[in-house]
Write a structure and sequence with these properties.
The structure is a single chain. This protein has 251 residues and is an alpha/beta fold. The chain has 2 domains: 97 residues, NIF3 (NGG1p interacting factor 3)-like (Udp-n-acetylmuramoylalanyl-d-glutamate--2,6- Diaminopimelate Ligase, Chain: A, domain 1, 3-Layer(aba) Sandwich), CATH 3.40.1390.30; 113 residues, NIF3 (NGG1p interacting factor 3)-like (Udp-n-acetylmuramoylalanyl-d-glutamate--2,6- Diaminopimelate Ligase, Chain: A, domain 1, 3-Layer(aba) Sandwich), CATH 3.40.1390.30. It is 37% helix and 25% strand. The protein contains 10 helices and 11 strands. It is elongated and about 55 Å long.
């Protein structure tokens, strides 16, 4: 078995791709085969055209992303999608994607690693979604202002607060990415402070009405943790070079 297949098989088993549900059309696992010889692994949040260009310039052989190239089911291989596939194939670069399986992974997941960056430990899975628990909750007493500073340090940027709850934080819920719309379900579980990436406009006022502190820490920023950790682990395990392709959206 060549190195690419060894890595892909290892990642599939580690992330439990066959057991974790995802959005319809999302493809977790190897999305594009490349050369079998792998010397350098790259990590990125999005398989966007600028990211793929930068990865190729950095001589990445395997690009691990959180948001892959395919989401909407059957698609025409045209436009930006065609360009991404063509230049990746021309360069012999493989692309591997992990979405929800990476979010919820107990060691390399976005949720647990964001929590770790905030000094939180021993979280409990919570928030039902498609038969799994999609978030983590923590009993942790802290001033809201102090928590905000910790989050801004963790994501290296400003965050936005809907101050619906008390200044004294006691129960924290975390779902990285775009989980603002889950605020009502979060409130029903007794969470007083919910950390996510982003949410629709109405989630701000809804959080106020529900009495919950809703902290938008950035969809992109909250989902850099998993791909970085996973690529680093792969690089160490298989003796590879590694690079993070940073392409922030500001959202």
């Amino acid at each position: 078995m060549n190195k690419l297949d060894k890595i892909v098989n290892y990642l599939d088993k580690t992330l439990k791709n066959n057991d974790i549900p995802d959005y319809p059309g999302a493809i977790n696992g190897l999305q594009l085969r490349g050369n079998s010889k792998i010397l350098k692994v790259g990590a990125a949040v999005d398989a966007a055209l600028p990211v793929i260009n930068d990865a190729i310039k950095s001589k990445v052989n395997l690009l691990i992303v959180h948001h892959g190239m395919f989401w909407g089911g059957t698609q025409k291989i045209d436009g930006a999608l065609y360009k991404k596939i063509k230049i990746s194939m021309d360069a012999g670069m493989a692309i591997y994607s992990s979405h929800i399986p990476l979010d919820v992974h107990p060691k390399y997941g976005n949720n647990v690693l964001l929590a770790k960056a905030l000094g939180l430990s021993k979280g409990t899975p919570f928030l039902d979604w498609e038969g799994i628990k999609i978030g983590l909750k923590y009993n942790f007493k802290i001033k809201r202002k102090t928590l905000m500073r910790k989050i801004e340090k963790a994501v290296n940027g400003k965050v936005h607060l809907a101050p619906g709850g008390n200044e004294e934080v006691k129960k924290i819920g975390i779902v990285t990415g775009g989980a603002g719309s889950m605020i009502e379900s979060v409130a029903n579980q007794g969470i007083d402070t919910f950390i996510t990436g982003e949410g629709a406009h109405h989630t701000y006022t809804l959080a106020e009405e529900l009495g919950v502190n809703l902290i938008y820490a950035g969809h992109y920023s909250t989902e850099t943790f998993g791909v970085k950790a996973l690529a680093h682990h792969v690089a160490e395990k298989y003796n590879l070079k590694e690079v993070f392709i940073d392409h922030p959206t500001g959202l």
